[in-house]
Write a structure and sequence with these properties.
By secondary structure, the chain is mostly helical. The protein folds into two domains: 51 residues, no CATH class; 181 residues, no CATH class.
């Protein structure tokens, strides 16, 4: 009796082991067809794995798996090739969309700041930024003074020209050049009023400035600085003010033309010319404008490159 039970148990264990081995062979056959990108059918799995089709149909799990993979392959084949987007094209589209989003965000931020300025919000920096700005101005003035001293030292090395007689009708070369300097009489008159002598450095700076308005503003800023205190080197101070586009305070601007008014007038003209899209105030307290390419540039630089007279 016990011997009979042992035989039945062994037969069951052997059958279970054989079934698991057959399942493993069928699974390996399915994996092989997937790796080779071949159609998955009952006939193909039976041929590759060496398992009968009857057994594949009889085993529920294997049958369900084969039918699922077969249907999945057929559904993929039903999609026309021209409708399949490759991973590379999808990645390129995603990258282009991200760039467009970044550009739109920058433009949106610039427009938001510009609207704030139009509504009357202050364009000036806080107390700490203002202090840093003043320190930078002092350093720029000192740098300009050193440049002027260096230029004067260079001029001293040049042999002085022979001066003509007092009543001579001959005009010296230096006087002739000064007469053809191209500096407007208005600028000369205001310099004389402040007691400033034109030297080679200052003349070169004035000539290289794109707008006469920038020079006049710098002269008015110097006049305001002289009123506030003693300026050791007015010529060097003016040279730095012209280069950096310094503005006088609102009460000294002609016709009550404030810096905000100048910016608004310039921005409206530049926007119509499609030079800029938006404007913003930087952490340094300066105004920046966004070009049509989305690049932020200093307003002072743009005002120098594209003066109001040129945009009108």
């Amino acid at each position: 009796m016990n011997s009979c039970k042992r035989n039945v148990s062994g037969i069951k264990e052997s059958a279970k082991k054989k079934r698991l081995q057959t399942i493993a062979k069928a699974e390996e056959g399915i994996k092989q067809l997937i790796r080779q990108s071949k159609p998955i059918t009952f006939e193909a799995v039976a041929e590759v794995s060496g398992v009968s089709r009857a057994w594949l149909y009889k085993e529920p799990e294997i049958k369900t798996r084969i039918e699922y993979l077969r249907n999945q392959q057929q559904s993929k084949k039903s999609v026309p090739p021209d409708q399949r987007a490759s991973e590379a094209s999808n990645a390129a589209k995603a990258k282009a969309l991200l760039q467009e989003i970044k550009k739109l965000r920058a433009e949106n931020q610039g427009l938001r700041h510009h609207i704030e300025e139009i509504l009357g919000r202050s364009i000036y920096a806080d107390e700490q930024a203002e202090r840093y700005k003043k320190e930078a101005e002092v350093l720029k003035v000192k740098n300009a003074e050193l440049e002027q001293q260096l230029e004067e030292c260079r001029c001293c090395k040049v042999e002085a020209p022979v001066s003509p007689p007092h009543n001579s009708k001959v005009t010296s070369l230096k006087q002739n050049r000064m007469g053809q300097s191209g500096i407007s009489d208005k600028i000369k008159q205001q310099q004389v009023a402040l007691g400033i002598q034109l030297n080679s450095t200052l003349t070169k700076t004035i000539k290289s400035t794109a707008s006469e308005e920038i020079v006049l503003f710098a002269i008015q800023a110097l006049s305001e600085a002289i009123e506030r205190g003693n300026i050791e080197n007015p010529g060097g101070w003016l040279n730095a003010a012209i280069k950096d586009g310094w503005m006088p305070s609102e009460k000294h601007l002609p016709g009550e033309k404030t810096e905000r008014d100048i910016f608004k007038e310039w921005f409206d003209l530049a926007y119509k010319k499609r030079l800029v899209l938006a404007a913003t105030k930087g952490d340094d307290g300066q105004m920046y404008v966004y070009t049509i390419d989305g690049a932020p540039l200093s307003f002072k630089q743009m005002l120098s490159d594209y003066p109001i007279e040129k945009l009108k």
